[in-house]
Amino acid sequence: MDMTMSPYLKRESDMSGSHNLEIYLHLVDGFVRGKGKFRWNSRRDVALVNKGSDMLVEELRIPEFWYQLPHKGLVKNGYGRWVKPGRNPEDIPSPFSQPSKI
């Protein structure tokens, strides 16, 4: 399997990334045929690749090595996918609400 087939994987790889079961499963799930494009509607959750590695592109915003308590903030949604939970605007820190230290 060629790791460059997937648009979700980083182009630079390391030894741990090239021997990762989740990456193999991701590639098998997206594989269509020899020279074909990677299947965009694959059924396997792409976040599972970063469960024990740092091989997903940064645009996906999935934290690296997230499978540890408390999963770096990721939760399972109603579809069984690992996602970042929504936050109330009141919970998001704002530089304007912080007291000045001047």
Can you characterise this structure?
- There is one protein chain.
- With 102 residues, this protein is mostly loops.
- The chain has a domain at 3-60.
- Helix content is 14%, strand content 4%.
- The protein contains 2 helices and 2 strands; from the N terminus they run H-H-E-E.
- A two-stranded antiparallel sheet has the order 1-2.
- The relative contact order is 0.14.
In short:
With 102 residues, this protein is largely without helices or strands. The protein is 14% helix and 4% strand. The longest helix has 10 residues.
The biggest sheet, with number of strands, parallel, antiparallel or mixed sense and barrel status, is:
2 strands, antiparallel
The number of distinct helices, counting runs of at least 4 residues, comes to: 2
Mean pLDDT value: 80
**Class of secondary structure makeup:** little secondary structure
User: From N to C, what is the helix and strand string?
Assistant: HHEE
What fraction strand? under 5%
Distance between the termini: 57 Å
Global outline: elongated
Instruction: List how many beta strands DSSP finds.
Output: 2
Helical residue percent band: 10-25%
Low-confidence stretches: none
- Rounded to an integer in angstroms, the radius of gyration calculated over CA atoms is 17 Å
Task: Give the strand line-up of the largest sheet.
Answer: 1-2
EC number: 3.1.1.-
Protein name: Phospholipase A1
Function: Acylhydrolase that catalyzes the hydrolysis of phospholipids at the sn-1 position.
Organism: Momordica charantia (Bitter gourd)
